[in-house]
Write a structure and sequence with these properties.
By secondary structure, the protein is an alpha+beta fold. The chain is built from ten helices and 22 strands. The structure holds adenosine monophosphate (AMP).
Length: about 450
């Protein structure tokens, strides 16, 4: 008799909320309730004097003690330190994310016993440093990270298995061309994927790491704050506690407007109150530029992939913010297709990650049936050099964005001096031709050049 495999979990480490899922005996994914009894855990971390508290309680503490709470740290992944200090110390973002992962792991262990193996998801548009920071956060939380996969790929797996267009072992029944539109709390990304048999290939991806539900919330904050200012002469946004309370009211109002056509936002600051009516139509007008920004990205992606909406077989909605009716409307209007929203958009990613973790675990035991996930690089990869003519920094792209991975590329450089014994190659991701805004990935030193080479000898890297 075969022994029960060790439990595996899939984690959607979101900007505003995180979700953890496991596989039932039947092989289907299920969301694990956290210790508070909720399906998702706010990605907020409260640094109390002698302990670290994650989730709902941290979110509440953010109202009264904003200086001790970190939120939306996913947006800072890849930076050495978070912008906001906690008691004078700026923490590395991966340390903060690790606290969230530890809580999710603990919640999973309450149900499943000891858990180590996990798949964590990241936006497709995350660059290498942000991915690596996510891996590090997993390790810091004591997890064995089986893999990091892109959120849209995870969603496609979940939709595929649950809507039946892929089999229980993850094999697509017919070729599918899928566009996944993922609008979460803090990030937006859109990915084109091909599913053929067991191969999941991301063909192209695009996105905006600074656009998400929180930006819709802030429009409501501004709307209410302007009313308050007009009536009472002070701006509640200036006070961190009031700002945080207003942000919470705004999010509640936004969620309500997904089900109702109007709401009343009530808010008090310095013992003075305002009541502001907001209709769905007004809310859509206040935020139409944000929605348009997502559509520009979708259209740019289709152009890059040389596809039209007609070529797609499915449109998937992922991320809690796609519950806003305006998202489905604009996509259906633009594409002339109906979108697939058979799964709960905030659980799809964690479910797909759990399914993928299960495939990986089975794959390691039965190598014949494993799922292949192929990716593209989401940013240009290049090298920085000095242009001879101008003496200025110059970036040379070696692997353009949206190239299928793994990829190889060769480029030749010339030595600057006679008898130069080494060449340093600075590898960067993204940025422009002058190397501005590029993220350093690493430095590779070619150090064993033969002696006495003349200047301008070609070195192929
Ligand atoms: P995610 O990162 O996918 O969990 O998405 C979280 C975002 O979804 C947050 O900005 C939430 O405010 C937003 N969200 C969740 N439910 C709704 C809803 N019913 N209507 C509008 N936005 C929602």
């Amino acid at each position: 008799m075969s022994s029960q495999p060790a439990p595996v979990i899939g984690i959607d480490l979101g900007t505003t909320f995180s979700v953890v899922a496991s596989l039932e005996r039947s092989g289907l994914p299920q969301t694990i309730l956290n210790a508070e009894g909720d399906l998702s855990t706010p990605s907020a971390v409260y640094f109390e004097q002698d302990q670290v508290v994650v989730g709902k309680e941290a979110l509440k503490a953010a109202v009264y003690e904003p200086e001790s709470v970190l939120q939306h740290v996913k947006r800072e992944m890849g930076k050495p330190f978070c912008d906001k200090p906690i008691r004078g110390t700026r923490l590395p973002p991966e340390v903060v994310q690790a606290a969230i992962l530890r809580k999710l792991r603990q919640d999973a262990e309450n149900r499943l016993g000891n858990v180590q193996d996990a798949v964590i998801t990241v936006p497709a548009f995350f660059n290498e440093p942000r991915r690596k920071a996510t891996m590090d956060a997993g390790r810091l939380a004591g997890l064995k990270v089986l893999d990091i996969i892109n959120e849209p790929t995870a969603a496609a797996i979940a939709y595929g298995v649950q809507a039946g267009f892929v089999s229980a072992s993850g094999e697509a029944k017919q070729a599918e061309k899928i566009l996944a539109y993922d609008l979460g709390g803090g990030t937006f990304d859109v990915t084109l994927m091909l599913l053929e048999g067991c191969q999941y290939t991301a063909v192209a991806t695009d996105g905006d790491v600074q656009l998400g539900g929180i930006d819709w919330d802030r429009r409501i904050v501004d709307f209410v704050a302007e009313h308050y200012l007009e009536q009472h002469g002070t701006d509640p946004r200036q006070d961190p506690v009031s700002f945080q309370m207003l942000l919470q009211e705004a999010e509640d109002a936004k969620r309500a407007l997904s089900n109702r056509t109007s709401v009343t936002v009530r808010f008090a600051h310095q013992s003075k109150r305002v009541q502001v009516a907001l209709t769905r139509e007004e809310f859509e007008a206040l935020t139409s530029d944000l929605l348009q920004r997502t559509m520009f990205t979708v259209e740019r992606l289709l152009r890059t992939a040389r596809l039209r909406f007609d070529d797609l077989t499915r449109l998937l909605l992922v991320g809690g913010s796609t519950r806003m009716p305006m998202v489905q409307q604009i996509l259906e209007q633009a594409s002339g297709k109906s979108v697939d929203r058979s799964l709960s958009p905030d659980e799809a990613v964690a479910h797909g990650a759990a399914l993928y973790a299960g495939f990986l675990q089975r794959g390691s035991r039965a190598a014949d049936r494993s799922l292949v996930v192929k990716n593209v690089n989401s940013h240009d990869l290049g090298v920085l050099g000095i242009e001879k003519a101008t003496g200025m920094k110059r970036r040379r792209i070696m692997i353009p964005r949206n190239t299928k991975l793994p990829a190889r590329s060769k480029s030749s450089f010339v030595t600057r001096r006679a008898n130069q014994r080494s060449v340093a190659v600075h590898v960067v991701e993204g940025g422009d031709d002058s190397g501005k805004n590029a993220t350093p990935i690493g430095k590779c030193l070619v150090s064993d050049l033969p002696a006495k080479l003349p200047a301008k000898t070609q070195v192929v890297v």
